[in-house]
Amino acid sequence: MTRVQPLAIPALLVLHLLPGVVATLIFVVLAAPIEAAGYPPLAAFLLAIAAGIVPFELSVVVLAGRRAAGSPALLAAVPYRRRMSGRYWLILFPALLLAAVVGFGLFALLDAPIREGMFAWLPEWFVAPVPLDGITDYSASAWIVTLVAFGALNAVIGPVVEELYFRGFLLPRMSQFGQWAPLVNVVLFSLYHLWSPWQFLSRVAGVSPFAYAVWRTENVWLGVAVHVSLNTISVATVVGLVIGQLG
User: Domain spans of the chain?
Assistant: First the structure.
């Protein structure tokens, strides 16, 4: 296994959770002005990804690489880049994608009861940034801009950056947890999603299989491929629902 200097537990907690705090604050602050400008709450969340998550996580990885190797290259601080044969890709990728879909799908049955039981106090725009009962409250042009940004940020840019950060940068620096490192990483990754805490269990179930696979294979691109595919399925579903109502 690749060995890098582990990070102290307080540093791991901060680095796992702080970008989620930043993104959620941006989302909360921008939701009202974004709606006032005629855009759905989802647009505020996308700005949180673009202005909070992406620059925060990329900056940490790049700065760590510069300190460790004297290089500003993005991947200098990402040790999990071991090559994997095409045969293993053909086996692992579809198996992990299926496991993730099943994990998310089964535990998603608990999302609504948890949301209604523990988070009923949250405002509707926070719980449902895509208001399926109010799609036509926003113009088609506002939805087009929002959905294009949704595809770029939530299906591609966001998951790529998150995998490089959480599985590529942080996971190798959690060796003090031994074989439990991937699970601890996934639990903290799920807690980081402060904008959807009711999905904690389904996210742990869905992400754990490919997090363990990244750890075992030391190939972060496997996690990138599965995460991008999962988010693309989610984005395509939302886009289909919205366009279907816009007619």
Answer: 9-246
